[in-house]
Amino acid sequence: ILADAASRLARADYGIQVPVRGHDEVARVGAAFNTMAREIREHTETLEQWVADRSSQIASENDEIQSLYVKLKVENILMGAELDVARRIQTMVLPTLAEHDSIPALDIASHVEPADEVGGDYYDVLYTQGRARIGIGDVTGHGVESGVLMLMVQSVARALHERGLDDPSAFLTVLNRAIYKNCERTQSGKHLSLAFLDYANDSVTISGQHEEFILIKRDGTVRRIDTMDLGFPIGLEEDIGDFLSSIDVPFQEGDMMVLYSDGVTEAESEAGDLYEMDRLVASALRHHQKSANHAVAAMIQDLKTHIGTQKVHDDITLVVLKHR
C-alpha cells in the first residue's frame, strides 16, 4: 500500500492518504507518509495560488506597461509634431534670399544649422526704406524653449524696425524690456547675447553684446571687434540702458564682415580641439575675395573638416557680409 501510494504521489496525486493501523514501525511510516503528503498538498495549493495571483498581477502590470507604452508613443508623436512645427516656423522666419539681395550695397549669405530639432541662435536681416539692420544672437541652451525665445526676439526686432526706431541704444532698450517681461512671465530662466549691425553710407554701427565681429578689409587687413562693452545679455535685467553703447566702423567696397555664434568657435574636432577664433579668422582670410555665398560655403567646409565625425553640440550660425 505504501509503495502504491508513493507511486501515486510521484504522479502528483497529492490527496493520497494510506490507512494506518496499530503502532508498529509500518504504522509510523504510514502516518509520516500521510503527514508528508498532506503538507505537500498544502504547499502545492499555496504555490499554485501564489502563481495564479502573481500571473494575474503580472498580466495587470503588463497591461499597464502596454498602456503606458501606447501613451508614451502617442506623446512622442505629438512632441515630434510640435518640434517639427517649431522647426518649420523657425525656418520660415529666417531671412530669404530675396531679403539678402534687397540691400543694394551689401552681398549677404548665411549658414544656420541647429544642433537639435529647434535651435536657439538668432539671425535676421531687416531692411526697410533704405535702412539696413543685421542682427545675430545666441539664446542660452537650445531646444524648444530657446527656439521660442528666439522667435520672440525676431518678432519684437521686426516690429521695432518697422516703426523706424533707428537709435541703436533705444532699439535694444525697448527690445530688452519686452523680452525681459516675457521671460519673467514664462519663468524659463533663458536670456541671450544679441548684437546688431546697422549699415549706411559705407559705414556700420555695431551695438549690443555678442561674439566678436570680424572685419577683413579689401587689402587683407584684419580687425576683430569686441562687443563685450557694447551691451548686456537680453532678458536678464529689465533696464539695460546704462550698459549700452555703439561704435562706428568704416565698411567700404571689397570689405567683408563675419558674424557667427559660439557654435562655430567652440566646435570640437575628433581629438577634442576647439575651432577657436584663429582658425575662423584664417578661414575668412583665405576666402575673403570670393562672393558672400562662396565664402560662407568654403568657411563651413573648413569648419566641417575640423569637426570630422565629432558630434555637433551647439547651434552653428555663420553670416558673411561683403560690400559690393
Q: Can you walk me through this structure?
A:
The chain has 324 residues and is α+β, with helices and mostly antiparallel strands. It has helices spanning 2-10, 25-93, 97-100, 144-162, 168-186, 262-265, 276-287, 292-307; strands at residues 106-113, 121-128, 131-139, 192-200, 203-209, 213-216, 222-225, 246-250, 256-260, 316-323. 47% of the residues lie in helices and 21% in strands. The strands form two sheets. A five-stranded antiparallel beta sheet has the order 1-10-9-6-7. A five-stranded antiparallel beta sheet has the order 2-3-4-5-8, with helices on one face.
| Number of extended strands | 10
If helices are DSSP runs of H or I spanning 4 or more residues, what is the number of helices? 8
Order of helices and strands: HHHEEEHHEEEEEEHHHE
Structural class: alpha+beta
User: What is Rg?
Assistant: 36 Å
Oligomerization state: single chain
Stretches where pLDDT falls below 50 for ≥5 residues? Answer: none
| Spatial ordering of strands, largest sheet | 1-10-9-6-7
Proportion of residues in β-strands: 15-25%
Distance between the termini: 113 Å
Short description:
This protein is of the alpha+beta class. The protein has helices spanning 2-10, 25-93, 97-100, 144-162, 168-186, 262-265, 276-287, 292-307, and strands at residues 106-113, 121-128, 131-139, 192-200, 203-209, 213-216, 222-225, 246-250, 256-260, 316-323. The chain has a 5-stranded antiparallel β-sheet with strand order 1-10-9-6-7. The protein has a 5-stranded antiparallel β-sheet with strand order 2-3-4-5-8, with helices on one face.
